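Weekly modeling sync, notes
Attendees: S.R. (lead), two postdocs, one rotation student

Agenda item 3: backlog of single-chain predictions. S.R. asked that every request posted to the team notebook include the full sequence so nobody has to chase files. The rotation student volunteered to paste the first one in as an example of the format we agreed on. Action items at the bottom.

Example entry:
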Amino acid sequence: MDAGIGHKRWLRAVDEGIWIEIVPGHFRHMATLPTFELLARAGDSWIGLRGGLHAASALRWLGIDGPRPDRPEFLVDRSHRWRVVPLKLHTTRRFSKTDFVRHQGVRTSTATRAIIDFAGVSPTAALVETAIDSAIRLRRTALPRLVARMSELSGPGMSGVVLLRELLLDSGGESYLERRFLGLARSSGLPRPDTQVVFHTNGTFVARVDFRFPGTNVVVEVSGRLGHSSDRDRQRDARRRNALQTSGLTVLEFTTADVIDDPSQVLLTLEKAGLVRPLPLALALTT
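Predicted structure, as returned to the notebook:
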């Protein structure tokens, strides 16, 4: 109307396919491609506070690695299940405003809720693993938060919870190598180490390490820092390691070849550092 297009002219343009309705009251010009972003913004404008981007769509919008859907899908409260729109809607009785955030102008499920929902529809566990690790690396969720919300949402209609319980055992690292180390520690009966631990001395930042085993002075690095080749890199690594060691910490460093190709040597090194694995049952009974 403001552009001088009368009502009849508008209706004729719609009938002729010049303007194409995306969702009720929202149109795109025929020359404008229906990109993921365009559809997401149109859907968000129409749905408003009744929902937000769902599962894989939310993960893509939040910049989390893994799923790359072409068309956005939305999660809404079950009371809106009667709505029929060109965009796909998922409904839930477990609808909470705390499960949504606004990111880059669009209301979306939080990374925590999106991962839980994605686990129920993902074709592979590997995609869910990738999403978990990426979300934790980007600080969009944390393992305790994910576990807590998963427990709250557990029940009928949340089919991804069983898969998540298995995957979360070894999630929390910031790389495939770190996840492999977590899996090695778990399968060997060692306590689960804390991940991405930050150390300070007198209020001054010293270092952030990949792992620290709780209740011990043992920290572990598996993130490839040994690959630094320049004098400046080696100097920085040496100073960092010295600062940790002078603080009373035992610093262990493992390469990709150690963790993947020679895990027995990794475990032996950890045992020498004072980490004790449970005895086999038969041996425990005779000790």
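Discussion: group reviewed the output briefly. The CA atoms of residues 112 and 146 lie 6 Å apart.
Action items: rotation student to repeat for the remaining queue; S.R. to check formatting next week.
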